[in-house]
Amino acid sequence: MRMLQAKQVINQRYQLQEKLGKNAGRQTWLAKDLSTEKQQEVVVKLLAFGGDVQWEDLKLFEREAQTLQQLDHCRIPKYQDYFSIDDRTLWFGLVQEYIPGLSLKQLLVNGTRFSEAKVKKIAEEILQILIYLHGLNPPLLHRDIKPSNLILGEDQHIYLVDFGAVQDCAATEGTTFTVVGTYGYAPMEQFGGKAVPASDLYALGATLIHLLTRTAPGELPTADLKLQFRDKVNVSFKFSKWLDKILYPAVEKRFKTAQESLDYLMGNRADNDTDYPNKYIGNHQLLVKPLNSRVNIEERNPNNIEITIAPQNKKINDIANSFDNPVSLVIFSIITIFVLSPLLSLPTIPVLILLIIYLYIARAKFLETKISLRHDEFQIVTNLLGFKKKYQGFTRNIKDVSINYVQQFQSEDKLKPNAIIINTKLKYRLNPYKRFVFGQGLSEEELLWLVSEIRSWLASIDEQK
Predict the structure, then answer these.
(1) Which parts of 223-325 fold into alpha helices (H)?
(2) For 181-205, how does the pLDDT look when each residue is reduced to its tens digit (9 = 90+)?
């Protein structure tokens, strides 16, 4: 392509302003559309046919123009025009809406740091775009999701650009496609010409890893074709597990759709429903214990792990435990209430009722829990103001250790973590599933850390078998 310059007008309409990108036979310019009243800013992509540019390149360029004409999404630049000019060189031009902002690649170069919260917000917005693309008839695959093709607009929303690698899923068996994609972001099946919606999900995951680690995925180490990123990021266990699944090398083990991926990311599906069909789900890397946690691992070795969850109000619990048995505690409490109620000018029965209601509502504040897991069996012992209860099961029957999510208020869409569940499955029973619940009142960080500890220990004894 001959040399183009700023202020030059092409196709008698577009005045070039600033070159945005250049590679073999292609140029991308920011331009003004002189035919509009306000001389609207647009992006003009130019392809010079001949030389390094072959029919296959032109076919992809035309496919991008045809695709953009069909799309109508607020986070995808709108199609404006397509033209060709025969002026010593045959030019093809594609004009689309200009999105003011910076690409995620530019932000990385500028030193921007991406927290887990920022990365999750970016993931949510990209997944919404993919839900739209993959939901078309036929579904459209972008096939080149990466930081340089994602724009953080001035409105602080993410836009997906550059549809030069787009492909629809209406192909018949045996059809060959141009292999496109960027190394490190594109999964193996895409380089084999068999891209599916989950291929775009992999590219999204690789992009998020780049934002979190500030290292291109192609430069990260791998093991069994899996990106090794955990030692380079500081994210929650739940989010790292989500990244593991979206980045799984085997396409059948990834999320199948963008909607499914978004549901899990947003917490709209219970943790124990998902992910890993294998025993002791997830990655077994340990997380860091949260500061000032009430949870203590009293002992951990290859034979057993002993865990104590202290009550929030330890003083009252210690007083209760100082009695010989719960009956003496009850007798003492009743006597105390009878003695104090005249002084408070309150009837005794209402005071008793209020005390019972309070203890029920605030029972997690006074509950002490001890969890003991061994090779053969496990037990959970709870102590509520001297009242002890024991739950037992066989370790070999444990199928899953996960976090329980509940909807706290009807008005809230998101689910909140509130406890840990040990799921077991017994043979030869009409109702073989049994759940053991503990950890109520712990923070999400404590729950995530404790689940990772238990899973890791279970995985270690599983490997010994």
Answers:
(1) 237-246, 258-265, 314-321
(2) 788 899 988 887 888 999 999 999 9
Tens of pLDDT, residues 39-63: 999 999 998 877 666 777 788 888 8
Q: What is the mean pLDDT of the chain?
A: 81
Instruction: Judge whether residue 412 has pLDDT over 90.
Output: no
Sequence spans of domains, the chain: 9-97, 101-266, 276-465
Task: Give 254's pLDDT tier (boundaries 50, 70, 90).
Answer: very high
Pick the CATH number of 101-266 from 1.10.510.10, 3.40.50.10190, 3.30.70.20, 3.30.300.20: 1.10.510.10
- Alpha-carbon distance 204 to 199, whole Å? 9
CATH 3.30.200.20 is right for the domain spanning 9-97: yes
pTM above 0.85, yes or no: no
Is residue 200 within 8 A of residue 258, CB to CB? The reply is: yes
Beta bridge partners of 193: none
Helix (H, G, I), strand (E, B) or coil at 135: coil
Backbone region of residue 283 per phi and psi (left: phi > 0; alpha: psi in -120 to 50; beta: other values): beta
The residue type found at 298 is: E
Residue 378 confidence (pLDDT): 95
Residue 334 has a pLDDT of 63
Cis peptide before 138 (omega within 30 of 0): yes
Please tell me which residue in 52, 57, 72, 144 is annotated as part of the active site.
144
Distances in Å between the Cα of 24 and the Cα atoms of 51, 63, 118, 191, 221 are: 9, 19, 35, 22, 31
Helices (H) and strands (E) in the chain — how many of each? 12, 21
Q: Provide φ and ψ at 236, rounded to 5°.
A: -70, 155
Q: Does 144 qualify as catalytic in the annotation?
A: yes
Q: Please answer whether residues 298 and 308 qualify as being in contact, where contact means their C-beta atoms are separated by less than 8 angstroms.
A: yes
